[in-house]
Amino acid sequence: MVFFKFSIIIPCHKEKEYLIRCVDSVFNQVWMPGNYEIILVLDRPDFETERIARNIGKHERVIIVYNNLAPGPASSRNVGIVASQGDWIIFLDGDDVMTVDSIKQRSEALKMFPDANWIVGDFARIDEHDNIFLDSWYSTRDIDPKPYYSAFKSGLPVKISYPSTVIFEGGMPWTGAVMINKKAIIDVGLFDNSLLQAEDVNLWIRLMLKYPIVFIPKKLAFYRDRFSSITKTRTLPYYWSRVSYGKILNMKSLGIYRDIVFQRLVNFYIGDHWVLRENGDYYFASKLLCSAFVLNPLNIAILKNLLILSVLMFMNLLGINFSKLKL
Fold first, then answer.
1. CA–CA separation, 84 vs 78, rounded Å?
2. How confident is the model at residue 166 (pLDDT cuts 50, 70, 90)?
3. H and E: helices and strands count for the chain
4. What is the residue-averaged pLDDT of the chain?
5. How far apart (Å, rounded) are the C-alpha atoms in residues 282 and 292?
6. What distance in Å separates the CA atoms of residue 267 and residue 260, rounded to the nearest whole number?
């Protein structure tokens, strides 16, 4: 087994119902190195979440720090990274749960690939009551990329030397199923504090442009899908993805992957435009579509939909409801 120090960083905000279960899933691992730490980052927690966190903090392996910077998971994880003493960083949200052999699987992958800088694994999704409704994220997706397919076929970790295209095609990693060498994450610049969502995707793209990935075809954690999650907001569904990808698009190091990021960004504008359009907000829908047109003025579908939106806005002025008009 590989013996490195692991730092498990857990942002805490309003997870009072789940935080004990989350931390217990770390303590109850079938194998842990002799040298590890759990860092609870308190990010403007409610009273009960802070009380529970402070009680957990009495354990000798637990460190409590406060995020006094910008609110959100990006800055909280960055505070945890700066405070960490480990060689390897593992992230877990306060309402998520590790599988019992999560650390063992990551350590065995590191033993197979000692030059690895970040390790990505599979995960399952659970509801607020721990019921599994998606048993495997990656095996249920189109795993045409050969590295994923070979990993699931053999059941063994694989090294992906050119991860960018594979990750874009096979699906972005989830934060709770990732382990990153601390030097590597500092090298690419940590999480972007200005992003309240899609901060993970932004970092993954920067990492994958520089470092190969080791992929583990085993579940490393359970992602909890709950109504009060930060991902359940009234913000347009692709707003933060648009901001995140917009920042990435300005990177000179994108190289051959610029077209992929560019097309994703265009699709995010189009996706948010449809949400506004279905709700009858034709003016702001047209503004988003105009942004997509500026990015890709040769897209015929965008031009057609801009024309349709012009008609819809005109008919709306006349008091005629024709919201179902589509291509």
1. 10
2. low
3. 12, 10
4. 89
5. 15
6. 11
Q: Is residue 40 within a helix (H) or strand (E), and if so which, with residue range?
A: strand 36-42
Three-class SS of residue 36?
strand
Whether the CB-CB separation of 277 and 285 falls below 8 Å is answered with: yes
The answer to whether residues 211 and 118 touch, using CB atoms and an 8 Å cutoff, is yes
pLDDT for the residue 160: 87
Angle between helices 300-317 and 282-295 (to 10 degrees): 160
Do residues 176 and 221 lie in contact, with contact meaning Cβ atoms separated by under 8 Å? yes
Instruction: Name the more confident of 177 and 150.
Output: 177
Neighbours of 197 (CB within 10 A): 21
Q: Is residue 194 a contact partner of residue 69, using CB atoms and an 8 Å limit?
A: no
Task: Find where tokens 């009234």 sit.
Answer: 234
DSSP secondary-structure letter at 125?
E
- Tokens representing 229 are 């999650």
Helices marked H in the chain? 19-27, 47-56, 73-83, 102-112, 146-154, 163-170, 182-188, 199-208, 239-249, 258-278, 282-295, 300-317
User: What is the C-alpha separation between 171 and 123, in angstroms, rounded?
Assistant: 12
Q: What percent of the chain has pLDDT over 90?
A: 67
Beta-bridge partners for 178: 120
Which residue, 21, 7, 8, is CA-closest to 226? 21
Going by DSSP bridges, is the β-strand pair 213-224/118-126 parallel, antiparallel, or unpaired?
parallel
Taking each helix axis as running N to C, give the angle between helix 199-208 and helix 239-249, from 0 to 180 degrees, rounded to the nearest 10. 30
- The answer to whether residues 76 and 39 touch, using CB atoms and an 8 Å cutoff, is no
Q: Tokens 């040298």 — which residue? A: 35
What's the rounded mean pLDDT across residues 71-82? 96
CA angle at residue 107 from 103 to 113, to 5 degrees?
150
